[in-house]
């Protein structure tokens, strides 16, 4: 070596491509969830309808909260950017508070996780890095499901 500083091992945040890579994963997840809400017998539509209605407007009415999805997206990027060891700071609600009143079911969680998996695959995240991210995600299961 000989340098003054050892290079720190890359964090999961680094390996996912830093903020840009995480944003791409989150945008893919959101696109996949959005597409799933449009299929017949969608599993995700029930829980997401209030947000979709607020963003899109109902029956030709103006949207009541056009930036709601964008706020969720930015909060999610911050949350993962922090949880994977990056320099971002999550400023959103706790997972329990964010999902309270939604009554998210185990089935809904598992379909949501499939949308995440598809985004991780299209972003070419390695099996190892996916496993590490799923530890973080699955730790939140009890705060997300059943409230
Ligand atoms: C571990 C898994 C999950 C994580 C990490 C997560 C993360 C988040 C985050 C960060 C927010 C925004 C909180 C805020 O803005 O303060 C949020 C909101 C939301 N989540 Fe999740 N979520 C997860 C699972 C789910 C599942 C399984 C569903 C439904 C099937 C779901 C539906 C929603 C909806 C509908 C909102 C929001 C919002 C609104 O009304 O604006 N989430 N989630």
Automatic annotation (TrEMBL):
Molecular functions (GO terms): heme binding; metal ion binding; oxygen binding
InterPro entries: Globin-like_sf (IPR009050), Globin/Proto (IPR012292), Hemoglobin_trunc (IPR001486)
Entry keywords, A to Z: Heme, Iron, Metal-binding, Signal, Transport
Family matches, as CDD domains: TrHb1_N (cd00454)
Residues reported in the UniProt entry to bind heme: 99
Pfam families xrefs: Bac_globin
Protein name: Hemoglobin
Organism field: Hymenobacter actinosclerus
């Amino acid at each position: 070596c000989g340098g003054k500083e050892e290079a720190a091992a890359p964090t999961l945040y680094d390996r996912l491509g830093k903020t840009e890579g995480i944003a791409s994963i989150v945008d893919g997840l959101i696109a996949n969830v959005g597409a799933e809400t449009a299929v017949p017998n969608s599993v995700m539509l029930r829980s997401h309808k209030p947000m979709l209605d607020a963003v899109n407007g109902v029956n030709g009415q103006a949207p009541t909260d056009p930036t709601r999805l964008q706020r969720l997206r930015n909060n999610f990027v911050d949350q993962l950017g922090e949880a994977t060891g990056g320099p971002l700071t999550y400023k959103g609600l706790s997972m329990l508070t964010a999902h309270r009143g939604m009554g998210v079911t185990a089935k809904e969680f598992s379909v949501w996780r499939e949308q995440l998996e598809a985004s991780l695959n299209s972003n070419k995240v390695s099996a190892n890095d996916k496993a590490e991210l799923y530890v973080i995600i699955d730790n939140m299961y009890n705060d997300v499901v059943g409230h």
